[in-house]
Amino acid sequence: MKCRRCKEVAIIDLPSHNFAFCKECFLMFFEKQIQKGIEEFNLISEGDKVLVALSGGKDSLVLMLVLSKLGYDVTGFHIDLAIGQSSIKAREVCERFCEKHGLTLVVKEMAKEGLAIPSVKRALKRPICSVCGKIKRYYFNQTARELGFDSLATGHNLDDEIARLTSNTLRWDRAYLSDQGPFLPEAEGFRKKIKPLWRVTEYESAHYSFLMGIENHYAPCPYSSGASFSVLKSLWVDLELAMPGRKIDFYQGFLTRGRPAFQAEEKIKGKNLEPCETCGYPTSSGSICGVCRIRLAVEERVKEMEDEMSYDFMDSDPKDVVEASPE
Ligand code: AMP
Ligand code: FES
Ligand code: ZN
Predict the structure, then answer these.
(1) How far is the centre of ligand 3, averaged over its atoms, from the C-alpha of 81 (Å)?
(2) Atom of ligand 1 lying closest to residue 155 CA
(3) Where does ligand 1 bind, in terms of residues with CB under 6 Å?
(4) Three-state SS for 18?
(5) 8 A C-beta contact, residue 193 and residue 151
(6) What is the SS3 assignment for 125-167?
(7) Alpha-carbon distance 145 to 77, whole Å?
(8) What tens digit of pLDDT does each residue of 229-281 get?
(9) What are the boundaries of each domain within the chain?
């Protein structure tokens, strides 16, 4: 198998594009795909300051590296969720990556915000992954606003987008179908959100990461039961094998023909957003936003636990306390 561009020995075959490439030509092709994806929807305008959400996984690190190589003004942003060793490792990977490439990194610690994910899990009786997603989206936007960034970029790739689109379509979820895509425009109180990797697959991103020697954090979140949309992703593996190019065609078709139709319908309904009384974040769920409510629930739970502990102490026999003390 020979490289389509330079006729050297190819190291990667991409049937969906009908190309095979050697290392150098693949790296160039991959970066061009990102540039093309940015230009197609004008994701980044000249002079834009972009905050890149870095989880420590390969996709977001690849995104950061490619954007900086393409000359965009990027700053990394990591949310330290305080989930034991998993968060420590993820944060270290982001720190080492930014240091190695001379890039700036901003870190927000959820423990300092009163929102360490293990405490949130203890305080709420809802699935933690969706709550955690809500907290992350909140800090993506709040931090981009507070620090004067024009947009917030995430590392979602074509496989993530296709799986989400399939899930939304299977439920005919009109609100989500009107919102999904490589960009969400700036709106009052919200910074523009962009997904510049939307044209590249997980397979391509993994190869780029490997060939560029990017160290990343593999371990899945200990609270998650597996990769999100894993069933839908594996269905798409079979589909793409049988019909190369179907993924990108389906997604682009949705962006040009599906999404506008859903958007027209959803616009009529509109959403009433008011600033949160506590933090100023735009919210449609009453006077206090969802994240401030979560923080209050955590504070209440901590207080309950403190009260329980002091009752236990008062109930116990003073002798036990003396005997239990080390001296
Ligand atoms: P996930 O939902 O974990 O697949 O992550 C999707 C994207 O969200 C990643 O590519 C990152 O851009 C961003 N992201 C996820 N977790 C974090 C985090 N802890 N800190 C910053 N960005 C994150
Ligand atoms: Fe948020 Fe797992 S609960 S990353
Ligand atoms: Zn709030």
Answers:
(1) 18
(2) 10
(3) 53-55, 57, 59-60, 77-79, 81, 136, 154-156
(4) coil
(5) yes
(6) CCCHHHHHHHHHHHHHHHHHHHCCCCEEECCCCHHHHHHHHHH
(7) 13
(8) 889 999 999 999 999 999 999 999 999 999 999 988 776 565 678 999 999 99
(9) 41-219+239-270, 272-312
- Domain 41-219+239-270: CATH architecture, name and number where available: 3-Layer(aba) Sandwich (3.40)
Cα-to-centroid distance, 143 and ligand 3 (Å): 13
Atom of ligand 1 nearest to the CA of 77: 21
* Protein residues placing their CB within 5 Å of the ion ligand 3: 276, 278-279, 281, 289, 292
Q: Find out whether the beta carbon of 124 lies less than 6 Å from any atom of ligand 2.
A: no
Query: Which pLDDT belongs to residue 326?
Result: 38
* CA 128–ligand 2 middle distance (angstroms): 7
**The predicted structure's pLDDT at residue 271:** 67
Ligand 2 geometric centre to CA of 247 (Å): 27
CB atoms closer than 10 angstroms to residue 294: 21
Work out whether the CA dihedral 294, 300, 302, 308 comes out positive or negative.
negative
Q: Is the CB of 82 under 6 A from ligand 2?
A: no
- CA 83 to ligand 2 center in whole angstroms: 8
Q: How far apart are CA 165 and CA 168, in angstroms?
A: 5
Q: What is the token pair recorded at 313?
A: 């102490």
Q: What is the pLDDT of residue 312?
A: 65
Length of the chain: 327
Closest CA to 207 of 7, 12, 10: 12
**Which ligand approaches the C-alpha of residue 118 most closely?**
2
Residues of the chain where predicted confidence (pLDDT) is lower than 50: 320-327
List all residues 6 or more positions away from 79 whose beta carbon is below 8 Å from its beta carbon: 53, 107, 108, 110, 135, 136, 139
Question: Is 111 a pocket residue for ligand 2 (Cβ < 6 Å)?
Answer: no
Cα distances from 235 to residues 231, 239, 247, 325, in angstroms, run 6, 6, 11, 60
Provide the CB-side half-sphere exposure for 154 (13 A, CA). Answer: 19
